[in-house]
Amino acid sequence: MIATSAGKVQGFREDGIAKFLGIPFAEPPTGELRWRPPAPHKAWKGTLQATAYAPICAQTNTFGLFAGPANDNEDCLHLNVFTPDPAPSARLPVLVWIHGGGNINGGAPGYDGAKMALKGKIVVVSVQYRLNAMGWFAHPALDREGHQFANYGVLDQQLAFKWVRDNIGRFGGDPGKVTIAGESSGALNVGLNMVSPQAAGLFHGAICQSLCPGPLLPAGPPISLKTAEERGVAFAIKAGCGSGVDAETARCLRALSAAEVEKIAAAGNFIGSQGIVDGQVVPILPMTAFRTGKFNHVPLINGNTQDEQMMFIAIRQYFSAADNALRTPATAEQYLAYVNGTYGKSPYPAETAKAILARYPLKNYPSPAQASNRVGSDAAICGQRILDKVLAPQIPVYAYEFQDRTAPFYFPKMPGLDQGAYHTSDIQYLFPRWHGGPGAIVIPFNQAQTALSDLMVGAWTNFARTGTPGRFGPVEWPRYVDDPSVPVWLLQKMQPMLMSDADYGRIRNCDLWDEIAKY
Fold first, then answer.
1. CATH number of domain containing 309
2. In a shared domain, residues 305 and 279
3. Distances, alpha carbon 151 to alpha carbons 72, 162, 167, 193, 273, in Å
4. Which of 90, 236, 295, 416 could form a disulfide with 329 if both were Cys (CB 3.0 to 4.6 A apart)?
């Protein structure tokens, strides 16, 4: 039993770890609190039984077997604590995990921090935050109410960080040694917090797995407040609240049921899930902040999986038919449409798509899916490499690529699909009980995968403790430097190895993507 700032919580012991699940850190953001900054949870009487995960935040399940289930729950601002030593004298490093899901899906259940807590002797905290239209929404009627706005999901995360600052010492953690970490949109949110002045001093290290906010993001950079508010007005019109910007419009929006909000959000491009440059929470574009040094300077682990695009190819194939045997692989026409549709229009010069198709001709790949994978994956990877080069002179950066192509896959086996080291495949190596969302296929690790998991857990938790990942099996993980001849890339696989920046850029065609990123 631990006495938090809002009341007592009763956890339980399992696998050598004390677990406290479903602790509310904010008042439910419902009714008049919808689309407002989160308010700290009021004190409760008695003892809260922190023995089960809280319901996940309102969302529509658009990623196949990832995340979900679809729901309209707004009372979801809870966190979970995993600690090997729930005693104030322990003073252990803390890792705060921000889940992924495109900022429209996902939740904390399944991210069991027991292995990192036990083997790394750290405290792990997983947090939930508002998603979709509840978390990433702007409208003039709301934004003129005198409170912070737009990036409600980031504000939720920052309130959770403050809860950690004020309470984690009672669970054995050190509030002066906090690392924030996340995967996919969780990594995006890590980056948004790095550029948010409001998060200054709330964390002391950062880990971005597959999508720190750099160039060539799949969804593009964070959008402007003007664009976000235009989308918000379109949402209000669709909801029957009209095109006004007054208090009555705000009341109409808050009077919508959560189910109505989710339904409308799923039907169009009404939100800014890649982040919104609101001027306060996210004051400027992240790349501008990073280039000008206007960000929270902390050590950073930044990396990707080898085959980032393959999960999105799998999602498309999964939804191509209800019968797994009939699910159709990507076609040559789809590959051409993907390249031309993404790079054959503004802001890219007219010849950009042609240059990509010349560098990634279909004849060089066993399937259109593999060609699409390399285009999408290399773009994401080289964008992160650009970010590394910008940050390396300013903060310690540690770069990696996760390369285990044997990782268990939570989608069913589909015709012609080679999963590779797909986007999200690395999560289960840190959270071994994580295998996607409801309906996902659970496959246990083999001995070699367990050994790789041990190496990753060791590096992540050592980084939380010291600000450097240290050794990764037979190699010392070096700090990234912008020198083409120096081996600075850690390739995470069964037999880890280092690669020079020049060689890594060559195998990922970064000369091409460096030019494309200028636009």
1. 3.40.50.1820
2. no
3. 19, 17, 24, 11, 9
4. 416
